[in-house]
Structures are given as C-alpha cells and as structure tokens.
Amino acid sequence: MLYDPTERRIRSFVTRAGRLSNAQAKALETLGPAYCLPYAKAETDFAQAFGRVAPQVLEIGFGMGDTTAHIAAAMPGKDFIGVEVHTPGVGSLLKLIGERGLTNLRIIQHDAVEVVTHMIRPQSLAGVHVFFPDPWHKARHNKRRLIQPPFVELLASRIAPGGYLHCATDWQDYAEQMLQVLSDSAVLENTAAGYASRPEYRPVTKFENRGLRLGHGVWDLVFRKKG
Question: What letter would DSSP give residue 120?
Fold first, then answer.
C-alpha cells in the first residue's frame, strides 16, 4: 500500500453544524446535483465536469462564497473549483450561482488536503486561492494552520508552471509564517518584494472593510510557480 499523506494528520478545520437557511437548503436541493462534485479518491477530469477546456483555479475554504462568486463572475473565461467543508457555506454559494447564472463554478464539499491529494492532477491548475484561512491564533494551535511546508509543496505540485498561489490573511503572525513558508519553497517565487498589493480581482469583504476601519492589517501573498 502506498503511503497516504492525508492519513493520521492534524486537521486545519473543525466541522461545525451551522444552521441552514431555507434559501440555502433549497439551493442545495435544486442546484447541488448540477454544481457539486462528489469527492473521489481518484483524479477528476474537470474539463468534462465544466464541459469545456479552460484555465482552472482552485479556491480552498470559500466560507459563504461571496468572494468566490464575485471572482467567477468577473472572470468568465476561467473555471473555478471551490472546496469547503461547511454545509451553510456550500448552500450560500449555490444560491449565488443560481442568482448570478454562473456556469464556471463547481463545488466539492470535503477536506481540501484530500481533494488536492487525490482529485487534482499534477501541474493542472492555473492558480490557487487561500483567502483568510482559520488563523488558529493560540500558539498551541498553530500546528493546525493550513499553510505549512508539506501542504504548500503539495499545492505547488498541482500548479502548472507560471501558475500562482495567492494567500491572504488578517493575522500578522500568520502572514509572517506564510511569507516564510512560501519563500522557503524551491519551486515558488514571490511576485513582490515581500507582501503583495491586493490584486484587483480579490474584492474587499464586509468583514475585511470593518477591520480596516478599525486599523487592522490585511496581508496578501502572491507566489508564482517556477518553470
């Protein structure tokens, strides 16, 4: 049996049983079958899932999906694969897909590490977005943070040469860790001298706006796959 890096690991999330709104439940029932892809322990032909060949961007942990829907609507020439474990977030994004008529979005409700490990082909992604992952701000919980060297190397192996990895956080010590981990990768290069300016495609969220008004910082990191 081959060694599976997803087995017996510390997870970067805690599954919460959040309450579904009626609209989210209806979206799950009516749109879920068309836009949600089942997790499979095998490489997935996403071109077949989307019905076309186009650059593919993976977003990990899309929350309630507002940013994901905004970016997908603004970039109709790209296909977006959103991964999220929490059912209300999946229902919320499905609702936005229906409201905005988005055809370039698919959702996988599963652990992102397992999705990347088993479903994403090597060197197939044009980009990866990891926006505001759980900071696990207590020092004893830092080991649960998603952006760690093994996962970054796994992500990098799935990104095509010239593709990018874009992370964002509003926790300074996590930003510093991200910068160190990404800079240490032998196959990624920073597109900026340190932290990047927020790319235009990433909208400012309501939560982020509130933090900025209170003087909280936000750090974006955009690294490119060498090659």
Answer: S
Long-range CB pairs of 109-112, under 8 A, 24+ apart, other chains included: 109/36, 109/39, 109/83, 109/84, 109/85, 110/39, 110/83, 110/85, 111/6, 111/11, 111/13, 111/85, 112/60, 112/61, 112/83, 112/146
Regarding the domain delimited by 22-225, which CATH topology (the fold level of the hierarchy) does it fall under?
A: Rossmann fold (3.40.50)
Where do the structural domains in the chain lie, given as residue ranges? Answer: 22-225
Q: What is the pTM of this model?
A: 0.90
Catalytic residue list contains 45: no
What residue spans of 75-226 are helical by DSSP H?
87-100, 112-119, 149-158, 172-184, 206-213
What secondary structure letter does DSSP report for 80? E
**What count of residues does the chain have?**
227
Of residues 4, 45, 79, 134, which has the active-site annotation?
134
- Whether residue 77 contacts residue 50, with contact meaning beta carbons closer than 8 Å, is answered with no
The tens digit of pLDDT for each residue in 115-158 reads 999 999 999 999 999 999 998 566 554 687 999 999 999 999 99
Binding site listing for substrate: 138, 170, 205-208
Are the beta carbons of 158 and 113 closer than 8 angstroms?
no
Rounded Cα distance, 192 and 124, in Å: 24
What is each CA distance from 174 to 50, 132, 158, in whole angstroms? 34, 10, 23
